[in-house]
Amino acid sequence: MRGNLKVDRRIKDKVVGMSEADLLLVSDPGFEGSSLLFNIASSYSDKVVWLAYEPPTMIESILSSYNFKGELRIISSKQYRNYNLVNIMNLNEVSISISKAGENLDDFALLFTGIPELLLIHGLEKTYLFLLNTIWKIHSQGGAVFGLITKGTQSLRDELMIRRLFPYNMRLQKKLTEAGWERNVILETPIEDIVDEVFPVGHIGYKIRIPDEFTKSIVRVIRQ
Predict the structure, then answer these.
(1) Which one, of 126, 124, 117, lies nearest residue 86 by Cα?
(2) Of residues 71, 133, 67, 54, the one with CA closest to residue 108
(3) How many domains are there within the chain?
(4) Is residue 167 one of the residues assigned to a domain?
(5) What digits encode the pLDDT tens for the residues 139-153?
């Protein structure tokens, strides 16, 4: 990628006509958004590249709760075990780290949960162009992007503009009731074979429980 973050024409030419099959989840704060998105991304492919900014303890808890047996490559701004360390102050370095992590992988899922951090550091314009380039690059490898932004960590304008990059949008909401936390996933984009727009979700530890048919339908439409 060029230093000024303009779209690389070679990347654009390679993906003309390809399906723009990507998903963005807007989540209330908490582990639930990251866990739900990992659930969907790992159902899409057993090869996952995770650009993560969560605390390593949260990441490890999510991974162990799903007993994931596929190939996982984690890129993080926090040094931990076998994570690939990246300086998020440099978008070119982040792009290179994603390319290296995706080497020799096809039909893989890029799980991107650090969009709010990039917006905070780099602003909307640079983050938007960076994501646009990244999505095209992942498509050129036959993969799909699963993005996460956290409600309240960016302006509504920034949220709406980032959402325009993703054809499928969902929202995870939490509400504290007398019985405890109530969690619901709301589909903001129609998904084939899914009639309901609101789905209650539960959890066991860090594992999100949601109907299998819900996840299968989302994976199916992204693969089209």
Answers:
(1) 117
(2) 71
(3) 1
(4) yes
(5) 988 899 999 999 999
